[in-house]
Design a protein that fits this description.
This protein has 347 residues and is of the alpha/beta class. The chain contains ten helices and ten strands. The protein has a single domain, classed as Zn peptidases (Aminopeptidase, 3-Layer(aba) Sandwich). InterPro entries: EF_Hand_1_Ca_BS, M28_fam, Peptidase_M28.
Length: 347
């Protein structure tokens, strides 16, 4: 009887130990990308966007008081999250001088503006930089009406905040990215891609030769007429133009995690809209930095005062934001840097 009890107890102990080991192994093998992507939620995206695209920000026109409020909102977010500036200290603003802005645009006369920059240092390959970008500005106030720019590009801006927060959670848990990530909120996009041009052509904080790719988010919160019956989509532009590897990685990540319909309609060289040349990724692409441009297409509220946060589809915004996060995670954690195997097509 004692022998039987001893054997039973031993087996029970072994089973318990085995269960504990299995649990530890399961935890170690947990898909970290999926774990942190779940922290990106429609609710949090909406919280940010109803503030960022509110009348208080006066349409975020380049250099104007509403735009200054917007950059302070972004800076405060990064400070509160403990995400540092690559410029050091409390300086999250890359100044873009009025003189330079006005020399490079024909769309009016503007005051000094700024890009907002935040940075997570890579744990193994800190000198290799993955850029995630979106433009912080919009059209401002015209004829007494505020152009809130909820989709353009409030949606991309708040997506970046949620992506940054997810990566920072990973850092706090000792699972930070191998490569560094630069969160680049650019100004003056509506005036001719000026903030991104200033970054790439005048003052790249990190050498473009060390820049792995730019994942650019510009309008991902709405549904266009083409997809009314198939809303789970996003347009991808430029993913294959400089790096076959980046394009394939993007496809694989989507199949593994999101199963969004990746629509390449506007990636066509003969597309008359020429969207490839019309958002901030292009200033990286022209310098042979691989890019992906995430876009939901235009709609009836595009560049109108009716582009308001109540019209955003937050579930879709969540899905698309998670797709960008998963792609950034994969690029940042690959053993080898993605290869640019093609040459930039310059307009």
């Amino acid at each position: 009887m004692k022998k039987t009890l001893y054997v039973a107890s031993a087996l029970a102990f072994m089973a318990c130990g085995s269960s504990q080991n299995t649990s530890k192994n399961d935890d170690a093998n947990l898909d970290q990308s999926a774990k942190y992507a779940e922290t990106i939620t429609a609710k949090d995206l909406g919280k940010h966007l109803f503030i960022y695209a509110s009348d208080e920000f006066e349409g975020r026109n380049t250099g104007e008081p509403g735009q200054k409020k917007a950059v302070e909102y972004l800076k405060n977010f990064y400070v509160n999250e403990g995400i540092v500036s690559p410029l050091g200290g409390n300086d999250y603003f890359q100044e873009v001088p009025a003189e330079w802005i006005n020399k490079n645009t024909r769309r009016g006369t503007f005051k000094d503006s700024e890009n907002v920059v935040a940075f997570i240092k890579g744990s193994e390959k800190p000198d290799e930089i993955v850029v995630i970008s979106a433009h912080l500005d919009h059209e401002g106030v015209k004829n007494g009406e505020i152009y809130n720019g909820a989709d353009d590009d409030g949606s991309g801006t708040v997506a970046m905040l949620e992506i940054a927060e997810a990566f920072q959670m990973a850092v706090k848990n000792g699972k930070g990215p191998k490569r560094s990530i630069l969160f680049l909120h650019v100004t003056g996009e509506e005036k001719g891609l000026l903030g991104s041009k200033y970054y790439t052509d005048v003052d790249p904080i990190f050498p473009l030769a060390n820049t792995v790719c730019d994942l650019n988010i510009d309008m991902i919160g709405r549904i266009d007429d083409r997809h009314k019956d198939d809303p789970n989509y996003v347009y991808l532009i430029g993913s294959d133009k400089l790096s076959t590897e980046l394009h394939n990685l993007s496809e694989e990540v989507n199949k593994k995690y999101m199963n969004i319909n990746l629509d390449y309609k506007y990636n066509d060289e003969n597309d008359p809209n020429r969207f490839y040349y019309r958002s901030d990724h292009y200033n990286f692409a022209k310098n042979n930095v691989p890019i992906i441009f995430y876009f939901n297409g235009t709609h009836t509220d595009y560049h109108k005062p009716t582009d308001t946060p109540d019209k955003i589809n937050y579930e879709l915004l969540e899905n698309r934001t998670r797709l960008v996060f998963h792609t950034a995670w994969e690029v940042a954690n690959k053993d080898t840097r993605i290869v640019a195997d093609k040459v930039a097509d310059k307009k």
